[in-house]
Amino acid sequence: MRLDNMLIAEGVAGPEKAGGANVAANAAAAAASGPPEHAIEHSDYRAKLSQIRQIYHQELEKYEQMIEKLCVYFVLGLER
């Protein structure tokens, strides 16, 4: 549950697969306005978050393709 909430808040997941994009954008803007010594940490965080988003969407796409294949398989199997 906590992971789901984090993914939604960071804009990785959600109803439109963009979830809390505004929340993530606001958090990034707030982080960018922080002290310069934390800029590198925030930059690393945003890079890792971007990587997580990319992997999440790739895996979600694989999942959706597999579901579609299974549905077709079962529908065609039942028609025989």
From TrEMBL:
GO molecular function term, any single one: DNA-binding transcription factor activity
Major location category of this protein: nucleus
Subcellular location: Nucleus
Domain PBC intervals: 1-80
Pfam families: PBC
GO cellular component labels: nucleus
InterPro entries with a match to the protein in the record: PBX_PBC_dom
Name of this protein: PBC domain-containing protein
Record organism: Notodromas monacha
